[in-house]
Design brief:
The chain is an alpha/beta fold. The longest helix is centred in the N-terminal third of the chain and has 33 residues, at 258-290.
Length: 854
Amino acid sequence: MRSRLHLINVVFRCYCCRRMPMMPAQNNRLVLLYGSQTGQAKAIAEEIHENAEKHGLRTDLFGLELTEKKFDVTKESCVVFVCSTTGDGDPPDNATKFFRRLKKKTLPSDHLAHLNFAVLGLGDSNYTNFCNCPKTLDKRLQELGAKPFYPTGYADDAVGLEIVVDPWIEGLWTAVRKQLGLPPESCTVAGETVSMETTDNKQTPGGVPNSVVQDSSGQTEGKIDMKDGRTGETEINGQHDDNPEKVIESQSDFKNKEIVKSYEDSTNDRTSMAHTDVAEAVTHSIELENKGGVISTTKQSTGPQTENTASDCCVDATDSKTTDKSENKKTAEASGTEKHILEADTTGSKDRDRQVVDTVKEQAGPSLRVSVPPLCDSGLTLPAKPVPYLEVEFHPEESLCIEELPLQGGCPFPSASADVVMATVTMATRLTRHDAVKTALDIELDISDTGFKYEPGDSFGVVCPNNETEVQDLIDRLGLTDHADVTFSVKVIEGTKKRAAAVPAHLPARCTIRHALLTCLEIRAVPKKAFLRMLVEHTTDVVQKRRLQELCSKQGTADYAAFIREPNLRLLDVLTAFPSCCPPFERLLEMLPRLQPRPYSVSSSPLVSPDRLHFVFNIVHIPSGSGRTAPCTGVCTGWLDRLTRHMQTGVYGDMAEEDGIAEKIGQMSLNDPLKIPIYLRTNNHFRLPSDLSVPIIMVGPGTGVAPFVGFLQHREKQRALSPDAVCGPSWLFYGCRHRDRDYLYREELERLAAAGVLDHLVVCFSREDMETDGAPPARYVQDNLYHHGDDVGRMLLDEGAVLYVCGDAKNMAKDVNEVITQIVQKYKGCTIQEARNTVFQLRQDRHYIEDIWT
Ligand code: FAD
Ligand code: NAP
């Protein structure tokens, strides 16, 4: 198995930053600092750094780990922080030292009185401590006397970081210049414009809008004629016609037709509403929050959600005078309206035309490949062209031992508290019946002789590769088949204009295209706008190029959200939708983020077996549709499923029976040990209380039950080791869909309950009718919490219990929080606000602990 071999026998190298002398602080220097866990904050800081020069600013960029090596905030006067949050609102790994020093209680209140700062925070509002780290940073800087010179931005990954990031950066330049005492930009750059303003979409005398494309440096796209809007119109409508007049004529014709007018009205309304939604959402929150010095959005509407099929191109089809049939078919295929258009073409009757347009009206709207007015007629402000900075040199004469390559170039993994080790898979058990909604797999790992030590409540990272077939598809699509397995080295292009250009640390010095795509790059990452901007440069078809420009433009924000971000499109989906786009591999090395390991909670106790570790996951299935060209499984869960298929057994017996594979298992594990790379993650919070008498309340539906199985097994052993110890009561609130299909670890939980280790096993089945003795049925864990509200309230408020919640962050954890608040309110007889304050305090005191994920 190739992917297995790729990951075995790895060598681990430490990535060490070279020590460089610290730059002397200067009055007009802007220092950009980032605290980044997975690379997003770093990428945004780099973007600011990259564009600063165009705005006449000199910047220095450093990771926060370089505090007091390359920068010292006690000596700087103007600093911009870009900072994310990790774990339970903790600082990213590279920022821990910086935060530790900043938080020292002995620092005087004027410690940073000389410092002016701005903060761009990144977070995810699915989590309770949204943007906790940037919020803490902002607060602490001000406590130490520093002054914010620009409102703090809180970008929310749950709705799209770009919604806040883009306008925040846009406004930053003016604020920085003002702060540094520099004149406004337009005065400094004589003869050039660095304005971010969009070119007016002014109508030409012929009624044709000027379609102007401008990048954020104010430069106009070469291929679209600014003086003659017709060129842009030709491109917008996909008419590859040498005679732009013809297209313009047809446009004018349309505009005189009432039927088309009404179509336009309907689409205009819808589209402009989508645009307005976003613009308003941002503007509103900026205005609203500016009062408190904050820019943020949370769960604002971001535009049209539905997959629409018709387009402006379809309207062209109704104009028999000017429309070429083959072009029509092409554009219709792109927009999914082929049938209607062909009908219109063959009859040519006015009634039919009207029917077609009516159908179009019903379905009209933008789609991934097609835009409608006003966007398709609009001038565009594009992000700056990403500057190429990597070049690849092939070494066909060199053979490479892929198996010996360090994992991701030996670059340290995020949240790692120990080295990567190779653990042997000893068992893979399906915990769900064949007819369950999701398939859950329990995997047992042998960690003997690896030095891997864990505690119940820990999570660990699985270093997984991408899907081999998907990688092959990408290689084929990019025309790289002949080079896929040839050794290459990568270096920075000499004289590149890219600032702080460096070969990504997660790429091995010698590599192959296949290896890089399989193990180093997140090929499923949703392409950011800058990525699409790069793709524009490598797209030959003018219609496709224009659409990509729209999708990455400021004006196309709603379409980007609806057709790229929300459906979670991958690079391969975008390349499929835009067949004339073919970026060079080097550009992908620059733009694709690092492939992230996937964390899993341990579902066992080392006291039971120090050499064995269990974890459980649901295999993620992502359907096709909304631009996703093929269904697929999650990167890691799909990989683990494929990897262990030959050895899987089922608690319901169906797997082993189905495949008759039971006896193969022993042989496989003896002859060919299956190893996967894992590493321990830091988690100091999700722990059993050291005092056994403290009551515990565990809430974990679905796979969220994982750490609690470990907790209870641990408790069982602890009790056996200290038979005289007083044990506090333990409650587990568990939920699944069907008692007989997806009740994970049922036997073990019932055994632990029967053994008295678990005092209360409270289970609900969300898709079964439950007998309730007259009480309202409990569908979800929070319903059962509510039913047992008196016990829960007493334990939490009077008996010092610890409440643990694990599993889904998006809905479950929020609903549980709400019910706990209600329970507290009822138990204390207080107002809802007082109850919220109490719950907040419980969290602060670590009596309400979450380990949740989306
Ligand atoms: P990915 O390839 O990462 O795909 C998942 C992503 O696909 C989703 O985030 C979403 O963006 C997208 N997606 C999913 N469905 C759709 C859809 N219908 N349409 C469009 N896009 C879609 N998980 C467990 O199962 N068990 C655990 O014990 C566990 N513990 C965790 C502990 C921690 C601390 C954390 C942070 C996470 C934990 N997770 C756990 C989650 C786990 O890390 C993975 O995220 C999960 O298993 C999916 O990984 P994957 O690589 O298979 O999926
Ligand atoms: P799941 O199988 O989808 O759901 C389990 C049960 O929860 C079902 O009965 C479901 O009911 C119910 N449910 C749905 N909405 C709910 C709500 N708002 N409140 C309470 N219950 C609700 O769950 P899963 O896939 O195992 O886990 C969900 C998520 O948790 C995944 O994203 C997983 O990655 C994550 N996870 C994180 C950790 C961690 O951070 N340590 C550990 C494990 C899992 P219906 O479907 O009938 O509505």
